[in-house]
């Protein structure tokens, strides 16, 4: 293989550019930490709603092998702990759903049928007592993978139309949700792979020992050419593949990222999207296995990429890409047609002959122009964000996703049983959450959940004190201080609201002044109930970094402020209307799945609520100039289009503004604001009630003249 003279220079340039676009070591490791934390948090969340499952994030996001331009999907797998997968009937367990793995000479490698066991004892079931069951010609009752996915789709129909792809049944774009069963028993496929790898420099011995005991998963996906394609389940060694990916050094990671960039841009132009990241990962595994460890260094990246493409070319010539772990599986089957294989083979031959010159024309992440010689880089790339800025922006995006995930899991209404009161439910969930404190893996996530819920408990107790006119609530207020560091504003604003409602206006002002100091113009709102198109775009977080040389002293995020009915006495009067925002039952029925989690409460963005509370508090203290200033700032903030990316509840913010006009006795303007609110959200909006009330006030005002 002929190596270009400037190979070392180009290799180092490729490595530096990958650092610049967010594929450097720090960013890779932060992505991994974030998604491992999210999967622990997700596990606690689903178990608290009664789903006995473990959650895993797999794929590019959790491996850290992505960039902003690759726009990789988020993959999550739910492994059902209520089902025992058997290799033989002797593995049967009482109190579990038991399924026996079946494989014969008609079942393709990696594929299994799942035979249903009797419920009361070991042995095959004989009746179709579930819609997901089918009967084989030979009499075995099977759990159909396709029907299993249909049941998931039906059970989650309130989430909208399902997006089905392979084993995934998703209700969110760019997300893959897979519901699977884990296999704890030893599998011959895995043992054969371990035996094949013995004595090689890679994978290391410790990894092979871990692979021996790592669970595999059965995911609902059949082989496209099988007679039982609708019934089959695919054996997936996700955890072993995670171990393999986590064992790679940074040069290997960067080669993989470049391969994916080539796949998404250059390969796509020639053969569409038939080549997947999984194909690239498999090519990497084979190349690493057959290449000496010492060659995997930064100055060899171009040579190593050529090795990877030569390996792919070999498999294309054979018409077969073997699965790295499971023998007998061709990863081209059902994915890459013979025509596409021939076309791609011609193109890869061309790429190798031209020493990967086409890489200089990749548009994703602007990588092609960034790979130009440094003498041209200043002209072509003038003004592009620096490496540190890109890393910090990705870091902010990851923190945003993490905090949003935490808020979703802490949404107490999502974990409420329908036949319990909210207080009973909170006590029950707290009791369950405390059990996780003995689990080393889940403890830190459980503590975050407990802290959020305890803050809600204290707020409810304070509301009760105010309802009963019990002034001895200072201890409860003091306890709230321990929850103030959850974000920039929301917990502090709730404290300020409590102080205002209990008559401690001077104390409320001090808290509000503290919030205003913290709430600089780069703070990003976080909402677990609604999303705004583009609110997770990379450029949003890059803009937060713009001009910020010193970094942030605290995470620049503010949760929405949510007031439950049980907190009514800690809530300004106008927000009580938000708890009864519908005027007809049809409006309740029109709410989508996610809206049902907050429509019975008051929920408001932190920044508008800050200025509204300032208006109320300064008014109560008779500081008219400060009151009017808060009024003007509130109105300016709502109408400034630059802030719309941070307004998840614009109709509620407008309702607060309308109420300010009411208190100024400008009923005409108040009515106009409420109408604007209704234009933003014409159903399930408390502005209807406000408009009716203000209409009566306006008539009374006219009659009084």
From TrEMBL:
It holds the Pfam family Mab-21_C. Residues 254-340 form the Mab-21-like HhH/H2TH-like domain. InterPro entries: Mab-21_HhH/H2TH-like, MAB21L/cGLR. It comes from the Eukaryota. Gene3D superfamilies: 1.10.1410.40. This is Mab-21-like HhH/H2TH-like domain-containing protein.
